[in-house]
């Protein structure tokens, strides 16, 4: 494929071109007057987006039967070809050269809409790349973006982890090695001088929570002499930073025994004293209700409670209950770092939920900082929907 064929032309309703003029990358079906089939081709192929007068506005991947009918790849004229992907990937790589800290070889290389490649996630773990192809349109364009990616990054292997992350429910992708070698079952990577073991084939997300790197650094710096709870610990990354920061005890709570095994191994890999870490296999909510001794620092980093808007009321109740019990277990002068990765829960709503939990818990809290994803997870100002991770760092007033 030298260049992707234009299969569709999407005619917008009069006055509905404003969002594209503001460079928002999504087009919903309600904004489209009609879909014109210009050529035979794949149903998930490319389309031109034109205004009511027929003026070309953008080129996008198109899924004609979806509510989110188009995701824009290029504003204005120009082909979607190998040169396009080479240029976009070059810009993405340049950002990472600027923002990824020293002694770190695990980071996000492509962040979908944030890097101008909607439907594509690429994470780098040392010599391996993990890709998530989230839409049928990006799947169709793989013959263009995959060679460009391999040429720029020169990995030993490219692994796909699309199956559970796909945004198109009828997208069928087979996870596994796409090119080159398979990674080891436990791949060692480095983050800010700390060493971590990741499972690229079977771990959560693409193997590791890369978006929390700067938050781990910030929280680790507060841990000296403190008793720390890392709830929803997964493989214990927050715990390693806490231990390295001088915590007197780190309790890692997680429901997955496989994840706790990695947490124990990673703790040992970093040369931390085994007597200062305790792994507990239990739901975090249950543990918080039953914990007897207070903690001087608590990290709440749960999985998404709301994957779509209709789930937000239920998620709000779950977040409030979780934070309420954490606040009741927080020692005077202690810190609470609480997060939501539910895209449908806005930062403003999350703040209100946490405020309500504090009122019900009867705890006075100082707001120290607002937390978000690491800078290798960029979000365009014209696409606020890309901001999924939000967090608050709070301190209990003595």
Give an account of the 3D structure.
- By secondary structure, this protein is α/β, with parallel strands linked by helices.
- The protein folds into 3 domains: 70 residues, PUA domain (Archaeosine Trna-guanine Transglycosylase, Chain: A, domain 4); 99 residues, Transcription Regulator spoIIAA; 188 residues, 3-Layer(aba) Sandwich (Rossmann fold).
- Helix content is 27%, strand content 30%.
- It is built from 10 helices and 20 strands.
- The chain has a 7-stranded mixed beta sheet with strand order 16-15-14-17-18-20-19, sandwiched between helices.
- The protein is globular.
- The mean pLDDT is 94.
Shape: globular
At the fourth CATH level, what is the homologous superfamily of the largest domain?
A: Vaccinia Virus protein VP39
Distance from N terminus to C terminus (CA atoms, Å) equals 65 Å
Helix and strand element order = EHEEEEEHEEEHHEEEEHEHEHEHEHEHEE
CATH class of the largest domain: Alpha Beta
Low-confidence stretches: none
List the domain count as a whole number. Answer: 3
Number of helices: 10
Strand elements, count: 20
What percent of residues adopt helix (DSSP H or I)? 25-40%
User: What's the CATH topology name of the largest domain?
Assistant: Rossmann fold
């Amino acid at each position: 494929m030298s260049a992707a064929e234009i299969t569709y032309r999407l005619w917008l309703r009069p006055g509905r071109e404003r969002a594209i003029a503001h460079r928002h990358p999504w087009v919903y079906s309600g904004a489209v007057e009609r879909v014109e089939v210009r050529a035979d081709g794949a149903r998930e192929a490319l389309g031109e987006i034109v205004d009511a007068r027929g003026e070309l506005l953008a080129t996008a991947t198109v899924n004609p039967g979806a509510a989110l009918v188009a995701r824009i790849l290029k504003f204005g004229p120009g082909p979607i070809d190998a040169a396009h992907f080479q240029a976009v990937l070059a810009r993405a790589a340049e950002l990472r050269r600027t923002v990824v800290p020293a002694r770190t070889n695990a980071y996000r290389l492509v962040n979908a809409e944030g890097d101008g490649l909607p439907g594509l996630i690429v994470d780098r773990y040392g010599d391996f790349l993990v890709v998530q192809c989230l839409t049928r349109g990006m799947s169709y364009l793989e013959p263009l973006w995959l060679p460009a990616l391999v040429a720029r990054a020169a990995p030993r292997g490219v692994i796909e982890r699309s199956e559970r992350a796909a945004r198109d429910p009828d997208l069928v992708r087979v996870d596994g090695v796409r090119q080159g070698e398979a990674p080891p079952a436990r791949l060692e990577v480095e983050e800010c001088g700390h060493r971590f073991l990741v499972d690229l084939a079977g771990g959560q997300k693409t193997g590791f929570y890369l978006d929390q790197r700067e938050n781990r650094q910030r929280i680790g710096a507060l841990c000296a002499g403190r008793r720390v709870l890392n709830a929803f610990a997964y493989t214990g990354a927050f715990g390693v930073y806490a231990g390295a920061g001088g915590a007197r005890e780190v309790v890692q709570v997680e429901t997955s025994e496989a994840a706790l095994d990695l947490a124990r191994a990673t703790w040992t890999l970093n040369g931390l004293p085994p007597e200062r870490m305790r792994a507990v296999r239990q739901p975090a909510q249950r543990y918080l209700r039953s914990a007897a001794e207070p903690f001087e620092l608590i990290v709440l980093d749960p999985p998404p409670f709301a994957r779509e808007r209709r789930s937000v009321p239920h998620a709000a109740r779950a977040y409030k209950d979780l934070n309420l019990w954490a606040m009741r277990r927080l020692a005077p002068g202690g810190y609470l770092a609480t997060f939501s990765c539910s895209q449908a829960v806005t930062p403003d709503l999350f703040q209100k939920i946490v405020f309500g939990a504090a009122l019900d818990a009867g705890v006075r809290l100082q707001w120290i900082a607002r937390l978000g994803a690491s800078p290798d997870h960029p979000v365009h100002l014209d696409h606020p929907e890309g901001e999924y991770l939000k967090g608050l760092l709070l301190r209990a007033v003595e």
